[in-house]
Protein: acid phosphatase
Amino acid sequence: MSDVHYFRTMPASGPRSYPGRIAIIGDLGLTYNTTSTIDHLMSNHPNLVLLIGDASYANLYLTNGTGADCYSCAFSDTPIHETYQPRWDYWGRFMQPLVSKVPLMMIEGNHEIEEQIEKKTFAAYSARFAFPSEESGSSSTFYYSFNAGGIHFVMLGGYTDYNKSGDQYQWLKKDLAKVDRKVTPWLVATWHPPWYSTYTAHYREAECMRVAIEDLLYKYGVDIVFNGHVHAYERSNRVYNYNLDPCGPVHVTIGDGGNREKMAITHADEPGNCPKPSTTPDKFMGGFCAFNFTSGPASGKFCWDRQPDYSAYRESSFGHGILEVKNETHALWTWYRNQDAYGTTGDVVYIVRQPDRCPVEPDVIN
Structure:
């Protein structure tokens, strides 16, 4: 039997009640960089941790425990391509000092797909984490929501059906309509693949998801979006449909937790780096929605020829972020680099809500 562990639950929902410090991490893995990330994170004493996909990278390890970037390539003739589940156990023991004291909420990433016999996917992800799916009216572990004080978190699935006719979209529409901004003024959404990343890696890969869902998030006034997947850090200005918009959300890509894959370095707007549109669709979800821009500085092009207006800050470094919601209108966002001394910040900004300028009138649900 393990030792007895305990943690403090979230404060009751209310406009003046917030967790002190919320840690945001993505694409964590189990490497030297992961160790640095978690050490830095724990020194910030968070009250809640959000893991935005790609936890253990067990799918990159063979059944003998050695690493392999392509399992099916290494054993192309085997009928069953199981991933190395003990890697999940190693990851869990490594994370125990943190997750035994602080609640962690997880959403799936592409490395959680882990296709097995009969094309079963996401088995380890669905079994190893707890999800308030039923409590939030969701029928899936791939998307759910919860409150933490005066914040309503919407955790979305980038690797399940997100079309307007699908279950996730219909659930999201009902969930957002029920949010009472007088009780939970802040609305935060997370999913794994980003919509507004300027790095060459995974550039516009989730465009079909953006086309399907962005209007709904904008209608209900989502304040902040957190993503992973791209192994670097980037923060946007408030943006909607690639245009600066004071009522759009701030998008933060924080897939820099410490994964064993390479760091994303090059940007799609740099000369010679713009990928071919045909290479961009997500391999698991399929579909093609990333066309040339029709207006603005990038009109007629697939990539910008300079850092886009919506991109406020970007850097290729491992690290983590801390969100501190101060009141109904102000939240402090801080990104910490691993290579810096403890307490040293890489990016700091106040995210300010303007409910008078951007009013939200929820629909009435019967």
